């Protein structure tokens, strides 16, 4: 009875994984997002990019993930949950090692831990057909990695302006060699745009290191998730978007490299205890 919703939900969530985001806007351009609105069906949307947090599907997805992931994986070791902001705009910037990352991030940082739901920026191909229907209602929204639209970028900024937790994979793709690869500058530009549009907004970037005991995770694979200290975006606004983004990107890369050292070996043999409220 529970097998069908488990398969559907996990197939959908696993698709929310690959992000190759590089903004092609001018160096000093700042976007000014539109205000939020609510569609007729009662589900909360924020812009014409239309993503929702379905009042019934989202809790179901988190419930299934919360109970299924510990059964599928061996040990799930999580450190640094105290670094997750309880409120305010946050960009989660994780390393990307497998499609499972997009299931484990909500498990480690989402509603059962913080009471907050994650919003994923996904490639436009992941938002087609039935799969796209699920992705949008689980808070995902599409971006064309080759030609990111103003509408999509505004939607991402709006999410931050409304204090949401947004997930962007700064490496751009999946890398299974456990090395931190060069980061795309898009995540820094987006964060700086959001912070500049509303002074004292308080956007924070949260680096997250994810590692598996096997490059291609399978049943019984061990997982380590290390959550680093937040990076305050306001500290990087000095007038030049290009230079500010370059410095922010470099510091984020260093933070992820430091976390990767903690990822290299999994030694503990107990599950991370996840609060139920």
From TrEMBL:
Asked if the keyword RNA-binding belongs to this entry, the reply reads no
Family matches, as Pfam families: Acyltransferase
Which SUPFAM superfamilies does this entry report, sorted A to Z?
A: Glycerol-3-phosphate (1)-acyltransferase
**Matches recorded under InterPro entries:** GPAT/DAPAT (IPR052744), Plipid/glycerol_acylTrfase (IPR002123)
Recorded GO molecular functions are: glycerol-3-phosphate O-acyltransferase activity; glycerone-phosphate O-acyltransferase activity
- Going by the entry's taxonomy, the superkingdom of the source organism is recorded as Bacteria
Which keywords label this protein? Acyltransferase, Transferase
Alphabetical list of SMART domains matching this protein: PlsC (SM00563)
**Statement: the UniProt record of this protein carries the keyword Transferase:** yes
GO terms, biological process: phospholipid biosynthetic process
Residue ranges constituting the Phospholipid/glycerol acyltransferase domain according to the UniProt record: 90-213
Question: What is the designated name of this protein?
Answer: Phospholipid/glycerol acyltransferase
> What species is this protein from?
Fischerella thermalis JSC-11
Upper taxonomic classification of the species?
Bacteria, Bacillati, Cyanobacteriota, Cyanophyceae, Nostocales
């Amino acid at each position: 009875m529970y097998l069908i919703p488990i398969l559907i939900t996990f197939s959908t969530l696993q698709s929310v994984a690959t992000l190759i985001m590089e903004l092609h806007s001018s160096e000093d351009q700042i976007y000014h997002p539109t205000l939020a609105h609510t569609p007729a069906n009662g589900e909360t949307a924020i812009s014409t990019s239309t993503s929702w947090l379905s009042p019934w599907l989202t809790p179901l997805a988190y419930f299934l993930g919360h109970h299924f992931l510990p059964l599928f994986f061996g040990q799930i070791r999580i450190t640094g949950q105290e670094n997750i902001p309880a409120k305010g705009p946050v960009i989660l910037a994780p390393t990307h090692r497998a499609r499972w990352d997009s299931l484990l991030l909500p498990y480690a940082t989402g509603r059962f831990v913080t009471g907050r739901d994650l919003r994923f920026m996904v490639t436009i191909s992941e938002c087609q057909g039935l799969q796209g229907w699920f992705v949008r209602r689980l808070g995902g929204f599409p971006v064309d990695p080759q030609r990111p639209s103003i509408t999509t970028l505004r939607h991402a900024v709006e999410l931050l302006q409304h204090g949401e937790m947004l997930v962007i994979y700064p490496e751009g793709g999946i890398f299974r060699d456990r090395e931190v690869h060069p980061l795309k500058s898009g995540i820094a530009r987006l964060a700086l745009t959001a912070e500049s549009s509303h002074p004292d907004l308080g956007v924070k970037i949260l680096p997250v290191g994810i590692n598996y005991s096997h490059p291609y995770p399978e049943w019984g694979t061990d997982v380590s998730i290390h959550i680093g200290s937040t990076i305050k975006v306001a500290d990087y606004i000095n007038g030049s978007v290009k230079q500010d983004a370059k410095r922010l990107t470099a510091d984020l890369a260093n933070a992820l490299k430091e976390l990767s050292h903690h990822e290299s070996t999994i030694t503990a043999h107990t599950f991370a205890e996840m609060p139920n409220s």
